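User: Hey, quick favor. My workstation is busy. Could you predict this chain's structure for me?
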Amino acid sequence: MLSDGRVLADPLNEYASPPQMQHYTALERFRFASPITRSQPCFWSFNMPKHAPELPIQVDDETGVWTTDSVPMLYVPRHFFVNNHMAIEAELGTEAYAEILYKVGYKSAWQWCETQAEGHALKGIAVFEHYMKYLSQLGWGLFKTEHIDLARGTAEVRLEHSAFVSEYGKCERKVDYMFTGWFAGAMDQILAAAGSSRRTVAEQEFSASEADHKHGLFIVYPI
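Assistant: No problem, here it is.
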């Protein structure tokens, strides 16, 4: 409160109530629930067991650019990234923002899998598993392939300790939608490399941010 009696808005709650969300229209069956209710961030516990990064990280002496497998990387605080994510979500609306992120994520996953498959002489399911391991080492969360069938173009990916859930908390809607396009993009690149014309779509079944769920689950199925 200021000396004249005015009360400043809490900056942490600035994006607590984005516009009312509607059912997702760009992807069938991709559903969202009610608007976000911002919970207190869940910061990392310094008492948890830790280990050094397993990813090969190099820093250019002249430019300061970080690279992993020759791919330029950015190392930023999680709350910084999620705060930006929340601001854009509030401005565009979740539906429009999710559609954009799906397309971008799909394209990026395809490119990454294509490059890694060539660089590490990988193919098939090994590419998908390599991608899940890589993502799990970047701080987004722990991704585990519960099921994958290349012949059918189907997969299920379990997500634990999501970076988004850690910041949003239990808000009764899916907050991990940024990841969704990644799984279809990875699957389709693997199928294309094998000479298959089959293409897929991905959606999130549920999130740890929703009641009664302790982890997230994404599914991939053919179009």
